[in-house]
Amino acid sequence: MKTILVVGGAGYIGSHIVKLLLKEKYRVITFDNLSTGYRHAVLGGEFFLGDLANRDDLRRVFQHYPIDGVMHFASFIQVGESVTHPDKYYQNNFVNTLNLLDIMLEQGVKACLFSSTAAIFGEPLYVPIDEKHPKNPANPYGRTKWMVEQLLNDYDRAYGLRAICLRYFNAAGADPECQLGECHEPETHLIPLVLQTASGRRKSITVFGQEYDTPDGTCIRDYVHIQDLCQAHLLALEQLLHGAPSDVYNLGNGAGFSVREVITSAQQVTQRNITVIYGASRAGDTARLVADATKARQQLGWNPQFADLSTIIQHAWQWELQQLQQKGRG
Ligand code: UFG
């Protein structure tokens, strides 16, 4: 049985991964400082409360468990906040990742899966975006992720640390069994905000900008189901543990939906009224991000099961209704 350290395993993507790894019979150790994650979202395995800023915490976990590979999800993810508070992003997303990689090397662990993002590309020169597309991040969040990708490249060349970087476009949806879902505090992502408006937890959803160079003027994104992202991680992990060289993959469905289209789809799925306000554009946003994930399909054998936007929204809606019910009871 292989032992996997999931750094940031109490967060949205990490918690879904932990569930899948356990189902696939991996031994899972979650490392998280619970600054944005939830202990109750870690559905099994062992939990280690620790901070990436503290090399001793990291050393302890590597010395305590026979770790075969690391999956790294712990980072700050708000594009807008990264523009106003870049220090927070460089410190946590870059410097703390350096801590993790250095302790991995010190402890002889040389296989890493890194959670990267479409934000490394910036405003695309062409769509869909393949792996070779030039990198020109439009905000500090994207820059920190791109810096880590380059760091990993250098660490492989110098020290033989192999890494697979998975660049998510817009992770969305929830565990189809409704045990897990998106729970950011504060929530900034479009789909959960729209659904919180549909359920009555929020009064309205504000559309950020209508003057983009897109058919309806609102931003276009490629929404990819969390469960499909998890499957891609599993495939990449298997390759990594079998000695595959470092690589990068874009993960998305290759279909772009505008903010307005997402709201319309949510209206259809939920059959509720959603009050929309049109506001100013958000700093650091790009008009259109759509993935070319041919490489992941061909080399990893990735085959997304929930590519349909309405299914993604349906699963997120199921989760939203359950959250609401629990809050009502509490
Ligand atoms: N949006 C609104 N109103 C809102 C929230 C979002 O109009 O209240 C718009 C945004 O402007 C954007 C789209 O909805 O055009 C999606 O925004 P999200 O905040 O849901 O997602 P982002 O595209 O900004 O960023 C997400 C993740 C990043 C990741 C990126 C890659 O937060 O971690 O996708 O595309 F890097």
TrEMBL record:
Catalyses which reaction(s): UDP-alpha-D-glucose = UDP-alpha-D-galactose
Gene for this chain: galE
Gene Ontology MF term list: UDP-glucose 4-epimerase activity
Annotated pathway: Carbohydrate metabolism; galactose metabolism
NCBIfam families noted in UniProt: galE
UniProt xrefs under CDD domains: UDP_G4E_1_SDR_e
Assigned EC number: 5.1.3.2
Pfam families: Epimerase
Subunit-structure text: Homodimer.
Protein's organism: Beggiatoa leptomitoformis
GO biological process: galactose catabolic process via UDP-galactose, Leloir pathway
Protein name: UDP-glucose 4-epimerase
Cofactor: NAD(+)
Keyword Manganese carried by entry: no
Annotated NAD-dependent epimerase/dehydratase domain residues: 4-252
Keywords: Carbohydrate metabolism, Isomerase, NAD
SUPFAM superfamilies, alphabetized: NAD(P)-binding Rossmann-fold domains
Gene3D superfamilies: NAD(P)-binding Rossmann-like Domain, UDP-galactose 4-epimerase, domain 1
Family: Belongs to the NAD(P)-dependent epimerase/dehydratase family.
InterPro entries, sorted: Epimerase_deHydtase (IPR001509), NAD(P)-bd_dom_sf (IPR036291), UDP_G4E (IPR005886)
Enzyme class: isomerase
PANTHER family in UniProt: UDP-ARABINOSE 4-EPIMERASE 1 (PTHR43725:SF53), UDP-GLUCOSE 4-EPIMERASE (PTHR43725)
